[in-house]
């Protein structure tokens, strides 16, 4: 799946079932650099491409010093990593990217999408049947990891239903979105709507919806136990169910309540439908616990569900906190400034807009190092400033709960 998005407009485009090379070859014709997010069911990464272009030269000023500089297509080409400014806006508009995508990439194939659903469901039930058949403590841990990852795959398929990339039929998207998300205890419409809000406000200190940054003022009001649970592994890795019930600190509402401030009045009936589907799944799980016993249900469903939650929290946390570099965040007072700069073609962009992830082999173990470091260091953001970055609470970092009291 290929996703192209714009922070400035909150719009995005998603294409499923297309070859990456088809998109990149067309994108290469754009005069400016391009960001693409390439995702599939179990991984998500950022890929970038720099189109071939004629190079020129000139002088520029960096930190008050003039030095020779190369340009690409009239835009500054900075080769010094120290000059990269991650808060600088991109020099292109989403419309330019959309226009460069071949028309056939916009065609969604519902039969192929359904084949992914059937395949993943067969794998889920096949894994469960095999685990029950062998039923020994050597097999169960491998089953939990594999099945939890498959639950994560089901979530991503439901996610694509919510984005409309599953098919062009909203009813078909809704039916399979409910089947997939309800099975893993996610309220489909409730989450879909809040996820839309997230994409429209990604990186905004106040209006973002997922892993919302804590302002310094709000952070200081939190009880020490709340800070400990949010910033001490493994607790943040199991935050998703609590987020569904009560959102992030400083925000009110619930993904299950149709009267929540998350939703418009016209959306309440959709939220109610999803909450009812969630309740039906809970009832089915209770019936299953009576039939097979609570311990067996925990082994077959409960532990994989926790592994799924862990995967979801790890992936989304890293999306919002970066890895080798801290991500810039925009307070309310800086949003219009950023929008104005982003759409001003007269101002050249300085910095490296090409971020290719480090190759890791089949298992991205290096990401856990970034995860641990970020949880240890990224605690709150300043209450002032047009562009802000995460800061560290020295009292929290490296100390236990007992030492903080």
UniProtKB/TrEMBL annotation:
InterPro entries in the cross-refs: FA_desaturase_dom, FAS_N, Fatty_acid_desaturase
GO molecular function: oxidoreductase activity, acting on paired donors, with oxidation of a pair of donors resulting in the reduction of molecular oxygen to two molecules of water
GO aspect biological process, one term: lipid metabolic process
Domain (Fatty acid desaturase) ranges: 137-326
Cellular compartment(s): Membrane
PANTHER family recorded: OMEGA-6 FATTY ACID DESATURASE, CHLOROPLASTIC
This protein's name: Fatty acid desaturase 7
Organism of origin: Actinidia rufa
Organism lineage string: Eukaryota, Viridiplantae, Streptophyta, Embryophyta, Tracheophyta
């Amino acid at each position: 799946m290929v996703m192209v998005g714009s922070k400035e407009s909150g719009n995005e485009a998603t294409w499923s079932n297309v070859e990456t090379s088809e998109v990149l070859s067309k994108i290469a014709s754009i005069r400016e650099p391009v960001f693409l997010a390439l995702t599939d069911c179990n991984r998500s990464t950022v890929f970038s491409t720099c189109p071939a272009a004629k190079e020129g030269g000139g002088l520029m000023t960096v930190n008050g010093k003039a030095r020779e500089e190369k340009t690409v297509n009239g835009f500054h080409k900075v080769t010094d990593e120290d000059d990269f400014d991650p808060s600088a806006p991109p020099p292109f508009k989403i419309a330019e990217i959309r226009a460069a995508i071949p028309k056939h990439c916009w065609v969604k194939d519902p039969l192929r999408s359904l084949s992914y659903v059937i395949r993943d469901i067969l794998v889920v039930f096949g894994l469960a049947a095999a685990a029950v058949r062998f039923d020994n403590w050597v097999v169960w841990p491998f089953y939990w990891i594999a099945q939890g990852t498959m639950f994560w795959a089901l979530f991503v398929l439901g996610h694509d239903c919510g984005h409309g990339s599953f098919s062009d039929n909203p009813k078909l998207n809704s039916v399979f979105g409910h089947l997939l998300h309800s099975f893993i205890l996610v309220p489909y419409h409730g989450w879909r709507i809040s996820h839309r809000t997230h994409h429209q406000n990604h990186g905004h200190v106040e209006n973002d919806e997922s892993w919302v940054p804590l302002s310094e003022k709000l952070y200081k009001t939190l009880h020490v136990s709340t800070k400990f649970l949010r910033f001490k592994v493994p607790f943040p890795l199991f935050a998703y169910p609590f987020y569904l019930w009560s959102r992030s600190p400083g925000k009110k509402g619930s993904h299950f309540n149709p009267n929540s401030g998350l939703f418009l009045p016209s959306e309440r009936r959709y939220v109610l439908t999803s909450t009812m589907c969630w309740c039906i799944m809970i009832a089915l799980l209770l019936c299953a616990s009576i039939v097979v016993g609570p311990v067996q249900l925990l082994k077959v469903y409960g532990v994989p569900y926790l592994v799924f939650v862990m995967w979801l929290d790890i992936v989304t946390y890293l999306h919002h906190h970066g890895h080798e570099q801290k991500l810039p965040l925009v307070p309310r007072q800086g949003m219009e400034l950023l929008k104005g700069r982003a759409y001003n073609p007269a101002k050249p962009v300085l910095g490296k807009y090409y971020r290719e992830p480090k190759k890791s082999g089949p298992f991205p173990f290096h990401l856990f190092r970034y995860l641990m470091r970020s949880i240890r260091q990224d605690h709150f953001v300043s209450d002032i400033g047009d562009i802000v970055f995460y800061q560290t609470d020295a009292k929290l970092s490296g100390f236990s709960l007992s030492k903080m009291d």
